[in-house]
Design a protein that fits this description.
Layout: H1 2-39, E1 54-57, E2 67-72, E3 78-89, E4 98-104, H2 107-116, E5 121-122, E6 129-130, E7 140-144, E8 150-158, E9 167-176, E10 182-183, E11 189-196, E12 202-211, E13 219-221, E14 228-235, E15 238-241, E16 244-245, E17 250-251, E18 255-259, E19 265-269, E20 275-277, E21 284-286, E22 291-298, E23 303-313
Parallel strand pairs: 1-10, 2-11, 5-9
Antiparallel strand pairs: 1-3, 3-8, 4-7, 4-9, 6-8, 9-11, 12-13, 12-14, 12-23, 14-15, 15-18, 16-17, 18-19, 20-22, 21-22, 22-23
Length: 315
């Protein structure tokens, strides 16, 4: 019995030694192959120095959706925008000029619209001028200068051409001209939407009342209740409110307001089957007081909103 146990222990020792040798040789060969690929420039990698050199599109700092909405007051002057920031995500600034190629990717806009219910459209080339050099493959070159962390894709626009439109620009990083830099896996793309405010686009305080077939949704409120509404441009004469908040409940419904030439206001509750203006008290806008007076029904006159919106500040 003792001889049998000794034979098993000897076999276990032989197996462990061979396993160790195999792992050790595999480690050595793997290290040699990785170093060779790196030196030959076949992979974008960095030596393990504790500071990977990652290039990303830095549109936002709080969301990996990397979407930014810009809103401007309308002017007829040419305006230069630092539209897309390209950033070296490192503690140290660039030790050399880094040329990063961006390519347009309109599919990103469609994906964003589908996920968020928005209606952004690709900006046509007629409403902007690219100021960066164009690469041989049709991309745009953004340079992160030596001593800096960020370079910009710049465009020139006339803001008045954007009024009433919901244009967006979508780009992704395609290549970097220096070895040793990585394209960010989650911030390698970005979208910037450019909107122009009409004169009603602003922040307003609300007082009013809402009647609903469900008594729990019926309520009234004063300015002191602190209900604030953002009116956001959707056309040269129109703004929308979303969501519609009352003192009792917040509804996932959008209310569109269009200011007519005589300062009456047409109202449309999106997503409802029968959008109806109030009768006999049409909604209107007081230009001197910068105040909307909204009186509108929907749901076959079963839902009734009365809302006074007084200007507070620019949005």
């Amino acid at each position: 019995m003792i001889k049998y146990k000794t034979k098993i222990n000897t076999m276990k020792l032989y197996f462990k030694i061979n396993l160790f040798l195999a792992l050790f040789l595999s480690f050595l060969m793997s290290g040699c192959l990785k170093d060779k690929d790196y030196e030959d420039g076949l992979i974008q990698s960095v030596h393990s120095n504790g500071d990977q050199k990652i290039i990303e599109i830095g549109v936002t700092t709080t969301s990996t959706s990397n979407f930014l909405q810009l809103a401007f007051n309308p002017t007829d002057n040419d305006t230069v925008l630092n539209l897309i920031p390209v950033t070296l995500a490192s503690a140290n600034p660039a030790s050399e000029d880094i040329n990063v190629t961006l390519v347009s990717n309109p599919a990103l806009i469609g994906n964003y619209n589908a996920l968020n219910g928005s209606i952004h459209e690709e900006a046509p080339s007629s409403v902007y001028t690219l100021l960066n050099p164009v690469s041989s493959d049709g991309g745009v070159i953004v340079t992160i200068p030596k001593g800096s962390h960020t370079g910009y894709l710049q465009i020139k626009i006339k803001k008045s051409n954007y009024l009433g439109h919901d244009y967006a620009f979508a780009y992704q990083i395609s290549k970097i001209d220096k070895p040793g830099y990585l394209i960010s896996t989650n911030l390698g793309t970005g979208i910037v939407a450019v909107g122009i405010k009409n004169k009603w686009d602003a922040v307003y305080r609300s007082k009013g009342s809402f009647v609903h077939p469900n008594a729990a949704f019926t309520s009234s409120w004063t300015y002191d209740d602190g209900i604030i509404r953002e009116l956001i441009t959707f056309s040269p004469n129109g703004v929308y409110i979303y969501p519609l908040e009352t003192k009792a409940v917040t509804f996932g419904v959008e209310l569109d307001l269009t200011v007519n030439a005589d300062n009456t206001v047409s109202t449309v509750f999106l997503g409802t089957t029968d959008d109806l203006d109030a009768v006999p008290n049409p909604s209107h806008y007081d230009e001197a007081a910068k105040t909307f007076f909204i009186d509108a029904y929907y749901g076959g006159h079963t839902r009734h909103l009365i809302d006074t919106l007084q200007y507070v500040r620019e949005r």
